[in-house]
Amino acid sequence: MTSPGLNRRTFLTTAALGATAVGAGQVADAATAGAAAGAPAILKPLPAERLIDYGTNAETRWDSVDPRRYLTPQADLFVRNHTATPKIDPATYELEIFGDGLREPAGVRLGLEELKTFRHVETTSVHECTGNGRSFFTTQQGQEVSGTQWTLGAVGAIRWKGVRLKDVLTAVGLRHDAVSVQATGLDASYVDKGVDHGHVRRPFLIEKALDDALLVWGANGEALLPDHGFPLRLLLPGWIGIASIKWLGSLEVSTSVLSSPWDTTWYNVDGPLTVNPVRSALELEWNAKIPARDRIVLSGRSWSGAAPIARVEVSTDGGETWVRATPHAPGRPTGGHGLGWAQWDFTWRDPEPGAYEILVRATDRAGRTQPDVAAHNPGGYFFDAVVRHPVTVV
Ligand SMILES: Nc1nc2c(c(=O)[nH]1)N[C@H]1C(S)=C(S)[C@@H](COP(=O)(O)O)O[C@H]1N2
Ligand SMILES: [Mo]
């Protein structure tokens, strides 16, 4: 186990400073300024040809996705904000780690420079909101759901850069009976229907913390954009978007199981939601008009939070017959990235002019296949059914 840079003396000093300077559970309020009245909730530009603007949220338009590009540029990545993007000064930023799951419960505060002394790691993973595809509960299944009416664009693939949470927690001094970690954001408190729920926060079990959880400052070779968590966000690969807390202010490590409304009231269907399901999208306009040709090549992507994609099938006759799509990297359907997405294309031969629905159904290596109907829940989470994409051949 290595903890470069933070030698024992540095750590003891940091720990001692932390113990005297801060009380457990204090989340800096500096960032709440970002939510000032009148300030935009999203800071990056939202060009209408690439993003659909929902106010505090925005989704990527699939018909603007470049089939030659594996990663989603941060500029085009969906944004999901409970409040508004805060402006945080990286020079004074600190992550607080505290709780009775640490050998020194008062904990430490680590600046970016200290965090960057740990071994750097990079990983590519699909980043997706739990509610992605939510609008199809209504338009395809006739069911009522509440929340942002995403189509399929609340998703992207990012190459993240950061350090392992495991390395940091080990260096800070983790107790063997620690079971739970709660991550809290520095954005303003979330007020819904007159109720103040406090800062956006969500707990996860120590197993995930010690497995592949990262503290990330980089995306696709750049610094995180403010809207995506600058200067530091948590990343729980393969898990639902809310698990990856942006503008990470604190981590509470506990010997008891922690909870928050973000894992009890929301993002919960018979238990806290964690691993994302299997989904697919075509890189094609909704209601696209395609000139009749003997060969029409359609492209798209499929992804899963659990495992690489094993197989993608396409139907142009409403699900009667299915044809295998061709992966872009044969034999390596995900393009070599563990929890990235699979790019594929499909050649549609000699369609007659007329109205069609294109159905795409993916299966992951964990054996999960997209169903015909998604399991309804009032929050509209996990719409994983095969989407019926309307096109007209003219
Ligand atoms: N602090 C904080 N973290 C957050 C959120 C938030 O509102 N505040 N939204 C969550 C949700 S619901 C999702 S889907 C992802 C969205 O990340 P992105 O905006 O970088 O795409 O961030 C998660 N982390
Ligand atoms: Mo989300």
TrEMBL record:
One Pfam family this sequence matches: Mo-co_dimer
Domain Moybdenum cofactor oxidoreductase dimerisation residue range list: 293-377
SUPFAM superfamilies, per database record: E set domains (SSF81296), Oxidoreductase molybdopterin-binding domain (SSF56524)
Record keywords: Metal-binding, Molybdenum, Oxidoreductase
Cofactor: Mo-molybdopterin
Domain Oxidoreductase molybdopterin-binding: residue ranges: 82-262
InterPro entries: Ig_E-set, MoCF_OxRdtse_dimer, Mopterin_OxRdtase_euk, OxRdtase_Mopterin-bd_dom, OxRdtase_Mopterin-bd_sf, TAT_signal
Keyword GTP-binding listed: no
Signal peptide (from-to): none
Gene3D superfamilies assigned to the protein according to its UniProt record, in alphabetical order: 2.60.40.650, Oxidoreductase, molybdopterin-binding domain (3.90.420.10)
Domain of life of the source: Bacteria
Name assigned to this protein: Sulfite oxidase
